[in-house]
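Let us practice reading a record.
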Amino acid sequence: MNRPTLLFAPGAGAGSDSGWMTAWTERLDAIGRVQPFDYHYRLEGRRAPDRLPKLIARHHDALEQLAPASTTETLVLAGKSMGSRVGCHLTVERDDAADRVAGLVCFGYPLKSAGKSGAIRDEVLLSLGTPILFIQGTRDPMGPLDLFDAVRKRMTARSTLHVVDGGDHSLRCGKRALAAAGQTQEEVNARILEAVRAFVTTL
């Protein structure tokens, strides 16, 4: 298999130049060509994310810039939190993206809204046809594993779940959890990377 191309979308609270995004861009480079990007609101210096249609449009533009329709390379949409959800919407709502994207990699998918409503954002996942990898921490309030189990049973797309024991929304584990498990954060990250590699090789 040729090295895939990964379009890497950030979460709502940070841009592609954040420490988290930079570190994971470097790690994912061991798997394929990685291209991070930013949504318009970040480029314009605003803190509040744009509405979903504008986010999807920007995500689509970034995909077109990275890999024109004529490309034959394996395309993967990777994303952190909001960026992963927008990637899912892109493959559901844009047929040209659905036909070209081979898989989705979601770092901390925000299944449960952070707002007061705590709304479950499962509609796009239930409509998805593209294979997807969820990477979720057990301490992530936006991704309770019991809710993921219920949603995945209803999904028609092939889904894989990699659980980070003790991980938060950014997949970071607390010192106590690491000590109790006799491991380091670097080892946790290495296992996440191997889960991504194993998933991508099935596409």
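A brief commentary: The chain has a mean pLDDT of 94.
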